[in-house]
Design goal:
This protein is an alpha/beta fold. It contains eleven helices and 16 strands. 30% of the residues lie in helices and 26% in strands. Strands 3, 4, 5, 6, 7, 14, 15 and 16 form an eight-stranded mixed sheet that branches. A six-stranded parallel sheet has the order 10-9-8-11-12-13, sandwiched between helices.
């Protein structure tokens, strides 16, 4: 099969190579998926650069997310799954091979039925972003009638959080850095969009919530935003942080202010989220997809041989929206939205 792989960590152009590798064979409890579209996440870039850890395998086929069709099953998996259109999550977690290849073998539970109305492009955009957003939003209960603040509302996880929160019946505010990002957050469904550089965010939030504050905050940069978060949070509200900007980032929590607010801090790293929570997320994401309310922005699609370019674009922040790799032969070429 054709696959992108690397045998050492480093810059994308230096270490990512396209070659022919053996096609995997599904083991007990696994399914073999023919990949149509592969999704790239910041964790894939961090693994390739060595930001997060050293290499655990001699050769790695990257990417955790993707979408395609089940071609074969291992022992213990019903053969009725063959032919299912699926989206994949955590393909390369604890394994050497991810979705940047024509085929990948994953545990059956990591290949989720894709609703008939959902494209492979959207399917490959789910995985880490959708599961992370769901955990940040719903770990502390239902959202119907509640209020949510999403930092980085134009980002991949941020827009996923907006989609899911609106589907669940919440009022959603989002922060952005410029007018272009603001348009993306509004398109995702945010009720109120605020510019971190220009608006008095806390004052606007309090005005919009009649002085009560928001129930949940989804934060992409807690170190920078913690004081602002506490100023926007209702008593007993939850702040969920899912990312860090730099290796070694440390930040002090204003303890007195947090205690007075009765604030709850939740830290979300999707790979360690308990499986029952992931199953609940999959159920919610599927319902949102079937309602046609999950519409991620696709920022870049490249063919498999240009995977290094896609990694670089994501690493440099040159693309707004999900970065995808089209794997299936005969599919469309590069698309920039």
């Amino acid at each position: 099969m054709r696959a992108i792989s690397y045998d050492r960590q480093g810059p994308a152009a230096d270490v990512l190579t396209l070659g022919d590798l053996p096609c995997p064979v599904p083991q007990e409890g696994e399914v073999l998926v023919r990949i149509h579209v592969s999704g790239i996440n910041p964790t894939d870039v961090k693994a390739r650069t060595g930001f997060s850890s050293t290499m655990a395998y001699e050769r790695v086929i990257p990417h955790q997310d993707g979408a395609g069709v089940i071609e074969a099953v291992g022992a213990g998996v019903s053969p009725t799954r063959i032919g299912e259109r699926v989206w994949i999550f955590e393909a390369q977690s604890g394994r050497a091979a991810g979705t940047a290849a024509e085929f990948v073998a994953v545990p059956s539970g990591n290949a989720v039925l894709l609703p008939a109305n959902t494209s492979y492009e959207i399917g490959a955009s789910l995985g880490i972003p959708a599961l992370t957003a769901h955990r940040c939003l719903f770990a502390d209960g239902d959202l119907k009638g509640r209020s949510v603040l999403v930092h980085g509302g134009a980002g991949v996880v941020g827009s996923a959080a907006i989609h899911l929160a609106k589907w669940a019946g919440a009022w959603v505010a989002a922060t952005v850095l410029d007018a272009a990002q603001g348009a993306i957050a509004r398109e995702a469904g945010a009720d109120l969009v605020l510019n971190l550089r220009e608006d008095d965010v806390a004052a606007r939030i309090m005005e919009a919530t009649a002085g009560v504050g928001v129930d949940r905050i989804v934060d992409v940069d807690l170190v920078a935003n913690v004081t602002l978060d506490l100023a926007c949070l209702t008593k007993g509200g939850v702040i969920s942080a899912y990312a860090m900007r730099n290796a070694g980032d440390e930040g002090a929590i204003p303890l007195l202010q947090a205690m007075i607010a009765g604030a709850v801090f939740r830290f979300v790293y999707i790979y360690t989220v308990p499986m029952p929570a992931k199953l609940a997320a999959i159920e919610g994401i599927t319902a949102c997809l079937k309602a046609d309310l999950y519409r991620p922005r696709i920022g870049l699609i490249v063919p498999l041989q240009r995977t290094a370019e896609a990694h670089l674009a994501l690493e440099q922040g040159a693309v707004t929206g999900k970065v995808l790799v089209r794997v299936a032969e005969g599919e469309k070429g590069s698309i920039i939205c």
